[in-house]
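go over this record:
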Amino acid sequence: MMSNPVVTDLSPRDVQAALSAGEALLLDVREPAEFAAERIHGAVNYPLSTFDAAAVLSSLDPARVILQCGSGKRSAMAAARCQAAGFAVTRHLAGGIGAWKAAGLPYISIDAATGAVRDPR
């Protein structure tokens, strides 16, 4: 059994800079309902519950991938799956979307009362 991978914690500002520069692909490993309720611009949803690292990463550059979840726990688990499958994905958004929101960065959300999309950017 493989030991836990070394996972590099990136700050929300670091992730935002990498995304803005076109240097990263943000993989959100939360479940579809979580992703639908709120998400970071440009993130792609690959839920951890069905995450197949080989299938997801076979057509991507692992060096560009940054993993993200709600708090950082599932993205670290996804990094372990990537490494077990032979892909050197080690970066994730420390604190997940919660940290992103706490940093005041823009994200898309759905108003539960009206169904309206809120997109502050």
Observations:
- Residues 73-84 form the longest helix (12 residues).
